[in-house]
Amino acid sequence: MADKKELRIGLIGYGFMGRTHTNAYKRLGDFFPELKHKPVLKVVCARNKERLQAFADQWGYESIETDWRAVVARDDVDAIDICTPNNMHAEIAIAAAEAGKMILCEKPLARTVAEAQPMVDAVEKAGVPNTVYYNYRRVPAVTLAKQLIDDGKLGKIFHYRANFLQDWTISPELPQGGEGLWRLDNDAAGSGVTGDLLAHCIDTAMWLNGGIKDVSAMTETFIKERVHTGTGEVQKVGIDDACIFHCHFDNGSLGLFESTRYARGHKALYTFEINGEHASIKWNLHDLSRLEYFDHRDESIERGWRSIHVTDGDQPYMDKWWVPGLSIGYEHSFVHQVADFFKSIEDGTPCSPTFKEAQETQKVCEAVLNSAKSKSWQETGVDW
Amino acid sequence: MADKKELRIGLIGYGFMGRTHTNAYKRLGDFFPELKHKPVLKVVCARNKERLQAFADQWGYESIETDWRAVVARDDVDAIDICTPNNMHAEIAIAAAEAGKMILCEKPLARTVAEAQPMVDAVEKAGVPNTVYYNYRRVPAVTLAKQLIDDGKLGKIFHYRANFLQDWTISPELPQGGEGLWRLDNDAAGSGVTGDLLAHCIDTAMWLNGGIKDVSAMTETFIKERVHTGTGEVQKVGIDDACIFHCHFDNGSLGLFESTRYARGHKALYTFEINGEHASIKWNLHDLSRLEYFDHRDESIERGWRSIHVTDGDQPYMDKWWVPGLSIGYEHSFVHQVADFFKSIEDGTPCSPTFKEAQETQKVCEAVLNSAKSKSWQETGVDW
Amino acid sequence: MADKKELRIGLIGYGFMGRTHTNAYKRLGDFFPELKHKPVLKVVCARNKERLQAFADQWGYESIETDWRAVVARDDVDAIDICTPNNMHAEIAIAAAEAGKMILCEKPLARTVAEAQPMVDAVEKAGVPNTVYYNYRRVPAVTLAKQLIDDGKLGKIFHYRANFLQDWTISPELPQGGEGLWRLDNDAAGSGVTGDLLAHCIDTAMWLNGGIKDVSAMTETFIKERVHTGTGEVQKVGIDDACIFHCHFDNGSLGLFESTRYARGHKALYTFEINGEHASIKWNLHDLSRLEYFDHRDESIERGWRSIHVTDGDQPYMDKWWVPGLSIGYEHSFVHQVADFFKSIEDGTPCSPTFKEAQETQKVCEAVLNSAKSKSWQETGVDW
Amino acid sequence: MADKKELRIGLIGYGFMGRTHTNAYKRLGDFFPELKHKPVLKVVCARNKERLQAFADQWGYESIETDWRAVVARDDVDAIDICTPNNMHAEIAIAAAEAGKMILCEKPLARTVAEAQPMVDAVEKAGVPNTVYYNYRRVPAVTLAKQLIDDGKLGKIFHYRANFLQDWTISPELPQGGEGLWRLDNDAAGSGVTGDLLAHCIDTAMWLNGGIKDVSAMTETFIKERVHTGTGEVQKVGIDDACIFHCHFDNGSLGLFESTRYARGHKALYTFEINGEHASIKWNLHDLSRLEYFDHRDESIERGWRSIHVTDGDQPYMDKWWVPGLSIGYEHSFVHQVADFFKSIEDGTPCSPTFKEAQETQKVCEAVLNSAKSKSWQETGVDW
Description:
By secondary structure, the first copy, chain A, is α/β, with parallel strands linked by helices. Chain A has 2 domains: 5-134, NAD(P)-binding Rossmann-like Domain (Rossmann fold, 3-Layer(aba) Sandwich); 137-379, Dihydrodipicolinate Reductase, domain 2 (2-Layer Sandwich), CATH 3.30.360. Chain A has 10 helices and 17 strands. The A-D interface holds A 1-2, 16, 19-20, 22-23, 26, 29-30, 33, 57-60, 166, 168, 266-269, 285-290, 309, 311-312, 321-332 and D 1-2, 16, 19-20, 22-23, 26, 29-30, 33, 54, 57-60, 166, 168, 266-269, 285-290, 309, 311-312, 321-332. Chains A, B, C, D: Keywords: Oxidoreductase.
């Protein structure tokens, strides 16, 4: 490991995502020994100095900063990892690109297409490696789905459906805004479930099934007012609590998407299903090691949905971990993304999804919100 | 059984539904001995005399007719059971009502709202008992869902979603029209999956969750042309192969519906899920004896989706059958509907869904098709 | 149907099994029109005349008898169907055979091997068609399992495991003996779960996997004393509440069997699993339409347990019923058995399991009980 | 983290278990920041120097040794972690205890009870902290099962059943012995599935349900001869390929255990189920985040097996990881065990299972093997 090249990380934001990203960096060397770089936890940044220091101590960051501009300015940092609320992504990313830093940005890329555009421009102009953490692509079962589709197993696709169901905001007592709750504040988040949850579904969908052409959507805000932790006042809730849309994909298949935080009984149930001419695929995040696969070419009396336990060495990423039958978890998807990012640097290839690709997802999100508002179909303008 | 009053059935149409209805009549006495009437299989009607006689012999009908008007005209028939293609429902039902017959009509009531209106008028004017076979309401697990909702277990409802997925029309070689295939002929069926499959989903949904207010839909016909068995010619396919819509219920909850015959791996997968403030419910037709139930009021560390095997004597209809753990099947839903119809006659109450209620389902179907065509939201005008 | 030959049934006993058998006879003509015989419900027999008449009226038996000997003596009866408690099987069956009647006997054949021997001798001497209702063989998914095994899909078999779990006798308040409870009375039943539940598991196992050679067992009676409904006294419980055994099959595979009525949460959960060199199979009674199948010859990255929904026309018996995706239930296994019995009469072949085969199952049951008592391995003497 | 006390680890063996243990040490500080000690990867030991150095580099061990005695002798090592084949456990553990080292030993403790005795004596005499890696206790769902049982939710227990099914040794081409295959070599392993897999089942079982009193077992070796990688010769296979036993627990419940490496379709399927008077519990390793729970006290029409997704902060260990709905994996059970060991050091309490407790498991294993050999029931002598 001694002869590996250092890749020095500056992490901005230390919430839930700050933890998943940091964990990913720390496991890289143990499980991806072939990589030529090793991550170094150079600096972590947030505003609350005391808690920040505790985080740095716990996770092993060498130093702290309370102003993200200082991180971007540091010469001993190679890559900026952005884990802030969404409303800060653009400013940080643009500054980081201008400073010539690589960028790993938590999703969604930005709050709007317009906000995302200069981010894309900046990384492209600077020519810096960049990626957005749509981590679910790298759950092995999901990557296997991609492989089966690319191998032509499904044939022509007719249907794609996905939903992301949660139930954590049902209580009207829950406030909006503030630590851990900025996702409920429209200014900070840009939208509700659309940017937070559907963005994941859309990214996976376009990766697996190509561009989304047009959409027809509806949104709902079930709880109209909540106390805002910032002001202490009861304020109008600006986010969408639920969002449903159907769409056409460029390949002629029909899409159906739904997300809500009001589906009692589902903690974080991201599911998708694809129906093709010859075969179909299903997956869900609660049972993430399993891929359900139906192959119509199986002999007719023996046909059934196969529950594939994706834990074998010949299945995506699984040669890195344990032995057949032994599951990995949610966090490993981040390890895989970071590993792929590191590999892409060595290969000089982009690490998908890049900012450019993540902006396409942004376009769909925006078309969805516009459609819901205007009660009309909207073209997405996606170029996938 | 000797002192039971006869209720003489005239069945029109002897296809798949003719079999399920006949089976229902024949099992009534064995499993619902408390009923005061007994069905008598007086006459069955269809055009192919030879095959009709074979059917009558197999199932025990006393006589046959090749003209439905003759059945309606017979004095020894009390109730007309309509199992013809959809395009004949109206004419037969109106004539039967005018002849003072009770009517049990296979769903959907008609091809359009306009076609349904005089049917409703006719049965109401004649004051004859009438019902439409939306049989899935009477699957015990579905009836149990209704009971839990009516008991207030779910609290305020946020979401209702249903789909009905099949995969039997994927081959372009399949013709349209003719015996067993009239469901693919728009003239005979009135629509594709909307009237055939979504009508079931809509009926259950409004029964469980109240009226549907407005809808936004899309439809698709994947195979544009098929040989028509009537003409032998390749003709344009008029039906919808797939239909997706979202909607508002009168109670403020959001609905999401999908149906297709292009979902590889699903033979007849009707599923629904309801998310309430306190609890959620799921069901699917492939595992019809199970109701999935999540109750948030369970102690937090022990909470989970309960898989209720609906086979106990205190669960709906199950005291009529075997012992706990032993499943009944699809066909029993028809037995239950016929039993309830017979009871309603004894009680002098309507047997839901009546023609009037089924017309409300028709309104949703029509709004859905109109929405898809016009690419705009449509009010349903439903009065539930 | 007019030209079918009558096969006149005399049913002895009208409890739970009396109902399932009668239902089977009544549905035969509707679903198996190709049969050359039609069952006629000639007479039903039990001791309580009033309730017997009600049963006869409900189900359509032409006459009643209160002494089974009268049934056996009647010239207008062709076949005796025995649904009494186990302790009466032998006497009735022997008399029926001597009277030249066909016999359909509910399982288990008898309480002991010794009791079964003259029954076997009697039917063989009389040359009368005979069968024992081990109905689970004729659940379509189970029959499909047999087909896959016979086709060699599994290869060499290593393991067979089965259990039959119930939970209806956990309360110490439950009495033993009397109507509906004779299964808890050792005199009437001959044993507890061994004869009632494991007998099913053993029959299926030997049918699928060949003879059982030797066994090592344990039994337990958790509730030692219960009120006897006959005497009104608290009496020692003679039956086994639970029984576990392992064994060798003749083919070298290992067997593992368990049954209990103290497994909370399981109403009637009969499950089995077979592990072969190339493939494995699982089934359970609560989800009886599904067969789980794992084929190691599937491409490695796509391998998984297939959940086969056994409702297609090319799967066993399913061409007789509805359309793909629509389940049948528990009761249909009896219809299939009666249909197969009728066919066997037409073909002049035995209808498996015959008395002779059912006696082999009896031998395993007896070896199991002996093993538990003697705490030692026992040879079964089975000749399969 | 600066003020944490170092606990310097010497790892002996670097195979599969060497990796899981090392990973556990490395994640401790990130996820269990409250611990007062921090593990230091001081030295790793194995015979192949080159590969050992690569392992040390990859995982971050400070130094290497090729003789385990050197590790035990080092002053800069506080704890010995034993990951060697089973036949070396005793010698190393005794020496380590004598050197005053803490010991964390991979299971099973030893090959025989006799071999284990001096190990237990040594750690007790030395008074050193000791534990054995029966890691499955610390899968959160399994720990939750323990909690529910300890809370009395199940009431009196009637049944305990467990199996551990694999399918990786079905090919006769697979050799025995050597790297990765010492588990197939009876000299190195001491037994086959009994010590490797059933030992896990037995440990969990006694932890959850108390001591096992007596056993009746059978074993089988399906492939009688395999090439030995050490000698290159075809040699008799000494291990048990499959083992089945039933037993009595001290609390009067019945136990049923099975393990095999010939169950096609199961990679590492450890399952257990417990049936109590009021409630039952099921778990399996392939879906390790789920605990199935049936509570008979639920209202009767709503009763069903609950599928508890054990990913909430109030469920065992889960406050350390992510957010509700996001699964952890197999490896985390080791992190939990190491965390508990560290806590036990701080508290001065034993970390269960200790060598003493693990020896009780050994007694059951030995009684099982003796029972199979002698074809008779065997008392275990367990004192739990």
